[in-house]
Structures are given as C-alpha cells and as structure tokens.
C-alpha cells in the first residue's frame, strides 16, 4: 500500500520501548514494534529504583531501525512515556548525541533515570516537605520530591547537570538537538508542586524551601509542537515536526476512548482505571485528577501494582526452580502460567498482591488469606495474584463511582490484559460492565493520534 503522511508515535515505557506508525488519512496503525529496555540498574539507595538511560536509548534505536524506508513518509513524531520519573543531563549530551557512540565519557553527561517506582522519599522524608498548592498531592517517585531528596543527600547530582525532565522530555530534546527541555502539563503535573489550573509551578513555595527552581522546565499545553528533527535519522527526514512529550497514561486513554461513557483499564507495568471528566470531584483516597486535553481531566485510580507484581512472582518462581537445581526459561514459565488449568476449591486462596504498597498507603503490603491443605498450588497462587490486582483496582475506583460518572463500558488496554485470560475474566466479574479489548501498542499509537488531532493542518 502507498502511504502519504505517517505519524510516528514512541512510548518509553518502564519495561519496553514501543513505536507505532499511524497513517494520517485513515487514523489506523500500519506498523508496531516493541523492544524490552532491560534498563533496571543498581541504585545507591536501598529503596531506589533507577534505570540506565543508555539501555532505554538503545531499545529506542532498535525500534526506530526496524520499519526501514517507510519512515521517509513520517511527517511528525509524538513521544510519550513513563510519568513522574526524572533524569538530569548536560546540554553537551544532547548536542553530541548523534555524533557519538555510547561511551563512558558520554555516560558522565547524563544521570540514571529515577523512576516513578523510586521509593527513597519515604513517609518520614515526605512529612518534612512543604504542602503543594495543587489539587494533586506529591508522592514518592515524583520528580520534585526526588529533587528535594537529592538536594539533601546527593547534591552533586544537582550541581553536575544543568537540565532535567522526564525520560520522554530528554528524548524530545535529543531528537531536536535542543538541550533545554519544555514539558507538557501531563508530565509537569506528574512531578508534583504544579498547579494545573494556573499552568505554573509552585515557585513561591519551592523557593521558600530552598528548592533549585532554576532546574524546572518551561511548561506548555499538550499537543504543542516542541521543534523539528535535527537531522535525518532512520530515514525520517530532517525537519520533521516533534511534539512536546506527553504522559503514557493520557496517551493510552486517547488511543482507546471513543466516548465519554467509556472507562479505560490499562495494565502494563503498573495498573490504572481512568475516565475523562470536566469536573474535579472531592478527592477520595486513591483517585486523582490528572490533566488530559482541552481543559478536561482524567479521573484515575493509579495502582503501583500491575504487571510488575506478576513479574515479581515469575522471578520468585524462577529462583525457586533454580534453587532446586532445575531449569526453565522466563518465557517458558510465563507461557506455562498463562495456560495452567483453572482449579475450583471450596475455600479459594485469596491473594492481596500489594507488594509495592500504594501511593495513598505506602506502608501496607501484600498477604495471603485462606491457605488450606489443598489450595496452595501454583495455579491458585498465580490466578490469586491476577485476581487480586483487579480487586485492588475495584477498591480504588468502585463500580458505583463509574456508574455515577455515566460509564457504560470498560476498554481494556496494555499487554498484561490482552495476554492474560484470568485478568480479563476478573475485570468482567468485578466491574460487571461490558469489556472491550485493544491491541497492545496503545500509548505509542495514542501519542501519534494526539498529534494528529491537535495539529490537523500538518497533515491536510
Ligand atoms: N513473556 C511474557 N509473557 C507474558 N507477560 C509478560 C512477559 N514478560 C513480561 N510480561 C508482563 O508484561 C509487563 C510489562 O508490560 P509492557 O511491556 O506493556 O510494559 P511497559 O509498556 O514498559 O510498561 P508501562 O507502559 O507501564 O511503562 C510485565 O510487568 C509483566 O507482567
Ligand atoms: O505506568 C507508568 C509508567 O510505565 C506510569 O507512567 C503510570 O502511567 C503512572 O504511574 C500512573 O498511572 C499515573 O500516576
């Protein structure tokens, strides 16, 4: 088929980088690819969660290499990714990126990514911090709180680098060869200390607390163009427009939502239930209102426990298997777990799977209930973890809340739902609403679609 104008969407996830090529005339995805980043790296802090930026960039390059000559048709690039996290860099890193191989020298020009799962800012530390002036609270793993922690404990990180942003902001800067980042409200709100209504950082509060406000990027509305591609790469022509980076959550919703009466459940590394609304209701624990598009908000129950919990379960089983002197590959184990026969027990095993705590309750962790002499099996355990994740989402965003907002259908997205039949069935059982499923390239597709919707003139 001959395509005229394509839009490239890139999603920098926690576990993988995904790309999608969208045909602007049909709004359909014509190509998708996903590459695992394997970026987790050791952290100087026991509760830290850091990723190696080079591994992320290499995964992105592998994705970009794969479509080949068709990339000549790309007219615009949209980037989204994991929210809340922060990375620091030097202008030189961005300026020399396209000339260099990754070396130990260039490594010094960029920090690790401190991710949204970073828990170093524990409750004790957070209580010392000023209260943000925003309808959004600032939790552990949020960029501004990580800066507060670094200022007190590792000030050299702040003095070594001039700029910071989310990982997706860094990638936008690299593509346009502009060291200084510009952020969208999606990502600024995910850092904390940002007033969405005023579209401004809480600079006064932060200055009083001795926060290095000069590090905070300029913020613009989502959908704005950041700049243009610095040079022809992977057949994408120099000068192609690049949008300001967006949040992966908002992009997974834009990719899937067709009506205001739909809610989206997205489960990949984390898990969330969300719906679009014009009003911010009185906040209840576990539900937050993130900026969406056009003065709308996303009411979100964002759980820290999603595919990462199942991943952790798989790793535990792998280590037991290896301790027993046996051997099975990770992929084979996933495959077996996903195809274990269902079991029926008069007393079912109940798994509370909150092994990562929750933002609104960071010190309560997982547990097993009702272990009997016949239900402690691999099948029951795995399915218990899967079901527990959905029950937790239901607790955070009760069905009544969805019904009150006029929701009539749930759209499921994210690779963990599409690959896991136990999770699919439990969503239907718990939420008792029709469930429709989306293909796994959701956020990468969504960021391309957002660019098309916000800038139709670029493709007419
Ligand atoms: N071989 C496998 N088979 C089935 N599921 C797997 C397999 N490997 C990983 N997973 C699950 O997929 C999850 C990661 O999903 P995905 O690659 O969509 O994440 P991501 O897009 O990087 O995350 P996010 O969008 O939240 O940042 C893991 O946490 C794990 O639960
Ligand atoms: O899952 C994520 C990263 O891969 C996050 O960006 C979530 O989307 C985010 O943590 C959450 O859903 C909103 O707080």
Automatic annotation (TrEMBL):
Q: What class of enzyme is it?
A: transferase
- Pfam family, any one: FGGY_N
GO terms of biological process kind: carbohydrate derivative metabolic process; cellular response to lipid; cellular response to oxygen-containing compound; generation of precursor metabolites and energy; glycerol metabolic process; nicotinamide nucleotide metabolic process; purine nucleotide metabolic process; response to bacterium
Keywords noted in UniProt? ATP-binding, Cytoplasm, Kinase, Nucleotide-binding, Transferase
Q: Where in the cell is it found?
A: Cytoplasm
Asked if Cell inner membrane is a keyword of the record, the answer is no
Carbohydrate kinase FGGY N-terminal domain boundaries:
6-253
Q: Which reaction does it catalyse?
A: sedoheptulose + ATP = D-sedoheptulose 7-phosphate + ADP + H(+)
Matches recorded under InterPro entries? ATPase_NBD, FGGY_N
Q: Please indicate which superkingdom the organism of origin belongs to.
A: Eukaryota
Instruction: Return the EC number.
Output: 2.7.1.14
Recorded GO MF terms: ATP binding; sedoheptulokinase activity
Q: Which GO terms describe its cellular component?
A: cytosol
> Per the similarity annotation, which family is this?
Belongs to the FGGY kinase family.
Give the protein's biological function.
Acts as a modulator of macrophage activation through control of glucose metabolism.
Report the protein name in the record. Answer: Sedoheptulokinase
């Amino acid at each position: 088929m001959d395509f005229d104008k394509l839009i490239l969407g890139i999603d920098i996830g926690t576990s993988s980088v995904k790309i999608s090529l969208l045909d602007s005339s049909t709004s359909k995805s014509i190509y998708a690819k996903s590459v695992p980043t394997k970026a987790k790296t050791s952290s100087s802090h026991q509760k830290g969660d850091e990723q190696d930026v080079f591994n992320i960039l290499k995964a992105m390059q592998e994705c970009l290499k794969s479509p080949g000559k068709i990339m000549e048709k790309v007219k615009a690039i949209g980037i989204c990714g994991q929210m809340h996290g922060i990375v620091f860099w030097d202008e030189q890193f961005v300026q020399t990126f396209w000339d260099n191989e990754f070396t130990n020298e260039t490594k010094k020009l960029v920090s690790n990514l401190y991710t949204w799962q970073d828990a170093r800012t524990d409750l004790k530390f957070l209580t010392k911090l000023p209260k943000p002036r925003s309808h959004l609270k600032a939790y552990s793993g949020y960029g501004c709180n990580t800066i507060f922690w670094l200022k007190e404990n590792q000030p050299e990180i702040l003095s070594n680098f001039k700029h910071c942003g989310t990982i997706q902001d860094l990638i936008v800067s690299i593509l346009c060869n502009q060291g200084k980042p510009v952020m969208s409200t999606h990502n600024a709100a995910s850092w904390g200390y940002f007033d969405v209504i005023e579209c401004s950082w809480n600079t006064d509060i932060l200055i009083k607390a001795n926060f290095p406000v000069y590090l905070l990027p300029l913020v613009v509305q989502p959908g704005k163009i950041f700049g243009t591609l610095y040079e022809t790469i992977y057949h994408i022509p120099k000068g192609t427009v690049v949008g300001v980076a967006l949040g992966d959550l908002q992009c997974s919703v834009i990719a899937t939502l067709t009506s205001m009466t739909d809610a989206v459940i997205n489960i990949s590394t984390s898990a969330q239930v969300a719906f679009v609304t014009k009003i911010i209701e009185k906040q209840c624990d576990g539900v937050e209102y993130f900026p969406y598009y056009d003065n709308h908000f996303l009411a979100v129950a964002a759980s820290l426990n999603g595919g990462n919990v199942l991943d952790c379960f798989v790793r535990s089983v792998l280590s037991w298997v290896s301790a027993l002197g046996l051997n099975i590959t990770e992929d084979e184990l996933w495959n077996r777990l996903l195809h274990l026969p269902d079991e029926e027990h008069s007393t079912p095993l109940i798994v509370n799977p909150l092994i990562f705590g929750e933002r609104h309750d960071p010190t309560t962790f997982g547990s097993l209930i009702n272990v009997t002499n016949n239900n402690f099996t691999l099948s029951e355990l795995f399915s218990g973890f899967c079901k527990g994740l959905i029950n937790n989402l239901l607790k955070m965003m009760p069905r009544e809340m969805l019904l009150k907002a006029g929701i009539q259908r749930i759209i499921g997205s994210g690779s963990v739902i599409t690959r896991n039949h136990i999770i699919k069935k439990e969503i239907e059982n718990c939420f008792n609403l029709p469930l429709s499923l989306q293909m796994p390239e959701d956020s990468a597709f969504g960021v391309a679609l957002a660019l098309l919707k916000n800038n139709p003139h670029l493709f007419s």
